[in-house]
């Protein structure tokens, strides 16, 4: 059998030849000393893209998120986010374990956030309550099926958090997809948030790396937190070069991934398992009314050369990316409906 069609995640991609060449040619220095020119250039470039003063390269999206949260929320105080947010679902309790941060969540609604619900949850200091110091949103929303939070919703949250004196953080791991899907400029997104994390290895095809984006003052503090968490890197420019190449060459092509995801969703629509509209590169599958559960689906698909992500007993996910071409989608469109027909 030919190699697998891997639809588990957009983190499984391999660097392109052009990206490998950029990595090989990158000028290097010791980034802990602030002397890696390729890292410094990437940080300046990403900060400028989002209209912020500064950015800091980090080894992972989880580390970038947790550093950003600690910049706004002191130990023992509170972050608000939704119950399916990556920061409380897939970061193994880091906010509490590392930052001493208390979290409180609203019911999972993916990208369909009601700003009024969030506003009503904000607790001021005093009255023996845990004060809310920040709100976090996820753009696009992973467990929300790659949903894109509308700009108007984000603007409502920004107005409300500003009024309450509360910071607004964006887990922007896939914000590039939102930018392509809705046409919202990156700087427009950036203007709404006090802190951001943006990922280079989801969709853009870089092997490693995320950045924290914020003010000069906050990024100086972020460097201390990164070092404390073991994230100081030396000749990191070899990785930063991959990210810089991805930003230059791989953002506009995300529209191709969105189109491929739409093809998958269309092929599976007759079986009633596609959970909501598919607008980016994630296809969420709700199997609660299906005769096959997520683990059985994944096992049957693997036997036929297609890899599927299991997110829960009755929840699965398909993700398109730059290493899945049209022929691979043809194969998946042939295999997956046949499993549901059994």
Automatic annotation (TrEMBL):
GO-annotated molecular function: L-allo-threonine aldolase activity
GO cellular component annotations of the record: cytosol
Residues modified as N6-(pyridoxal phosphate)lysine: 202
Pfam families noted in UniProt: Beta_elim_lyase
Ranges for domain Aromatic amino acid beta-eliminating lyase/threonine aldolase: 6-276
Cofactor(s) in the UniProt record: pyridoxal 5'-phosphate
Keywords: Lyase, Pyridoxal phosphate
Parts forming coiled coils: none
GO annotation terms (biological process): glycine biosynthetic process; L-threonine catabolic process
Signal peptide: none
Family stated for the protein in its record: Belongs to the threonine aldolase family.
Protein name from the UniProt record: L-threonine aldolase
Lineage: Bacteria, Bacillati, Actinomycetota, Actinomycetes, Micromonosporales
